[in-house]
């Protein structure tokens, strides 16, 4: 009130007592604290999601309906020999143009159109690996899970070769 006396009479200044300021101020503080708590909860949930997805040993990625990477774990980046930041937001067909017209592209297009999951094995030249690819339709695109089965295929080939040799040796007189 002393400060108002110095300013003199003014119709645009209304003196308020502390009680009238406390109600709205406390409401704003409580609202800000609730918002901050929700931000921390969302941050923690995103951190948990990142920890879970990055712990997957297979190549895991998510694409939106425009074929842009929205998420990928380190395995995808490692196999691609690119960093995650170079891939996020870019279209898969732009990063891997050699996939255009392949069985992989056809199955991705079909899964997106029909909203049906698909699984198949194929040789992926850019990574020089045999992969088991699982395609899962999502609300806004596709999720890809690619398991490296190169060693499994090699072992299978070796077993088949060994079996063939054993049969041949038994059949000899």
SSE map:
Elements: H1 2-7, H2 18-54, E1 59-64, E2 69-72, H3 74-80, H4 84-87, H5 92-95, H6 103-114, E3 118-124, E4 129-138, E5 141-148, H7 150-171
Antiparallel strand pairs: 1-2, 1-5, 3-4, 4-5
Description:
This protein is an alpha+beta fold. 53% of the residues lie in helices and 20% in strands. The chain has 7 helices and 5 strands. The protein has helices spanning 2-7, 18-54, 74-80, 84-87, 92-95, 103-114, 150-171, and strands spanning 59-64, 69-72, 118-124, 129-138, 141-148. It has a 5-stranded antiparallel β-sheet, sandwiched between helices. The radius of gyration is 30 Å and the shape is elongated.
The gyration radius over C-alpha positions equals 30 Å
Biggest β-sheet: count, sense, barrel?
Answer: 5 strands, antiparallel
Shape: elongated
Strand arrangement, major sheet = 2-1-5-4-3
Distance between the termini: 118 Å
Structural class: alpha+beta
Helix content: 40-55%
Please give a handful of descriptors for the protein shown.
single chain, 173 residues, alpha+beta, 5-stranded antiparallel β-sheet, 7 helices, 53% helix
In brief:
The chain is α+β, with helices and mostly antiparallel strands and 173 residues long. It has helices spanning 2-7, 18-54, 74-80, 84-87, 92-95, 103-114, 150-171, and strands at 59-64, 69-72, 118-124, 129-138, 141-148.
């Amino acid at each position: 009130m002393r400060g108002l006396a110095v300013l003199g009479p003014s119709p645009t200044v209304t003196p308020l007592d502390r009680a009238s300021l406390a109600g709205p101020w406390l409401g704003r503080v409580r609202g800000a604290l609730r918002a901050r708590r929700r931000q921390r909860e969302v941050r923690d949930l995103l951190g948990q999601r990142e920890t879970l997805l990055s712990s997957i040993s297979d190549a895991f990625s998510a694409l939106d309906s425009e074929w842009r990477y929205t998420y990928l774990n380190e395995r995808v980046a490692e196999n691609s020999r690119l960093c995650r930041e170079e891939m996020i937001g870019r279209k898969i067909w732009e990063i891997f143009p050699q996939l255009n017209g392949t069985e992989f592209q056809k199955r991705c297009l079909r899964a997106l159109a029909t909203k049906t999951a698909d699984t198949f094995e194929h040789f992926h030249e850019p990574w020089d690996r045999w992969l088991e690819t699982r395609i899962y339709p999502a609300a806004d695109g596709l999720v890809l899970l690619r398991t490296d089965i190169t060693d499994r295929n090699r072992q299978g080939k070796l077993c088949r070769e060994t079996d063939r040799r054993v049969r041949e040796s038994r059949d000899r007189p």
